[in-house]
Amino acid sequence: MDKKISCRDLGPECTFTACASTEAELFERILEHGRSVHHTEDFSPDSYSQVRASMTEGYCDLEDALCKYGECCWEDERGSFT
After folding, report:
1. For each of the chain's 82 residues, which pLDDT tens digit applies?
2. Is residue 82 part of a domain?
3. Would you call 22 helix, strand, or coil by DSSP?
4. Is the overall model pTM greater than 0.90, yes or no?
5. Does a structural domain hold residue 80?
6. What is the C-alpha R_g of the chain?
7. Which residues touch 4 (CB under 8 Å, ≥6 apart)?
8. Kind and range of the H or E element at 26?
């Protein structure tokens, strides 16, 4: 099962959501987003724990399929539906 997370789960008013097949890949996506959008450099131990606790399981392919029918659950970094 894939891993997913929303930036909103971590507090900021941000619509970014990511989904990946592994926890490590998801951390890379979140870190890249944090650097480019929120200007953070790295995870502190507390941030790492908060991100890890906010991850949920789901199916990325299912979300992609729903988008084809206009029922997207995920949003890209620009805040628009993918």
Report:
1. 889 988 888 877 888 888 899 999 999 998 998 899 888 888 788 888 988 999 998 877 755 555 555 545 544 444 433 3
2. no
3. coil
4. no
5. no
6. 12
7. 17, 18, 19, 20, 26, 55, 56, 57, 58, 60, 63, 74
8. helix 23-37
| 17: β partners | 6
- How many structural domains are present in the chain? 1
Cβ proximity of 52 and 26 under 8 Å: no
Which amino acid type is present at position 75?
E
> Using an 8 Å Cβ cutoff, are 14 and 54 in contact?
no
Q: How far apart are CA 31 and CA 59, in angstroms?
A: 21
**In terms of residue numbers, what domain contains 56?**
2-68
